[in-house]
Write a structure and sequence with these properties.
- This protein starts with a helix and ends in a 14-residue tail after the last strand.
- It has one domain.
- 6% of the residues lie in helices and 58% in strands.
- The chain has one helix and eleven strands.
- Strands 1-2-3-4-5-6-7-8-10-11 form a ten-stranded antiparallel beta barrel.
- With 216 residues, it is mainly beta.
């Protein structure tokens, strides 16, 4: 019984927006690349936490600007983003905006089939090792079928989210994070998430501790 509850919970979130972050205010140096992965556990009000596995990529595009991508499982979700670091020094700050596409699998009596499109404006502030972030996730859902024959709907929901994270290491980095999402429009009120990410960065000659390498 307990395994069927966990399985149903994972399927319900298949196709939902990804709630992990795994990035700091520091932009990668131009020409640098980071690859790696992450694991998150969403505590979304069911008996067991819901797992999320992320495959991550990031590239330094110009001074203070990098771009990234993320594929999340079991959500069938892909995200791309661009970040601009506008404040450097002991206290760094950056603005990031991303977009995502997710597909909800329609399962009888469990979930509606739908496409979900997300937009993620985000502000990140902090030091090299410890930092925080706040973002507003806008998710537009277009239903393709329903599990109980209800009328198809299209609707928009806002999800404010705050993060506290860390980055430890140089070329190889470990990035733990804690976040809380505040669901609106009838969704789950609070969704805590614990995450851990790892990244390997290469491709730049300027990879000292003062360079912007603690990044996803």
């Amino acid at each position: 019984m307990k395994y069927s509850i966990l399985f149903a919970g994972v399927l319900l979130c298949t196709g939902c927006v990804s709630l992990t972050n795994f990035q700091s205010p520091q932009a990668l140096p131009p020409g640098s690349t980071s690859v790696g992965g992450g694991l998150g556990l969403q505590f979304a009000g069911i008996v067991y936490p819901l797992p999320e596995a992320d495959f991550l990529f990031r590239y330094g595009l110009a001074n203070g600007v990098d771009v990234g991508g993320k594929v999340a499982l079991p959500f069938l979700s892909a995200t791309v983003d661009m970040k601009w670091q506008f404040l450097r020094g002991p206290l760094a700050a950056a603005f990031d905006v991303g977009g995502s596409y997710s597909r909800v699998l329609g399962l009888p009596d469990i979930s509606n089939e739908a496409n979900i499109f997300g937009v993620y404006p985000e502000l990140l502030v902090g030091g090299e090792r410890i930092f925080g972030a706040a973002r507003m996730m806008l998710a537009y859902t277009h239903e393709l079928s329903t599990s109980h024959g209800e009328p198809l709907r299209s609707y928009t929901r806002w999800y404010p989210q705050v993060f506290v994270g860390g980055s430890f290491g140089d070329r190889f980095r470990v990035m733990p994070e804690l976040s809380v999402s505040f669901g609106l429009s009838g969704s789950q009120n609070l969704q805590p998430l614990l995450g851990i990410g790892v990244a390997f960065t290469y491709g730049s000659e300027d990879m000292s501790d003062d360079a912007s390498t603690d990044e996803w």
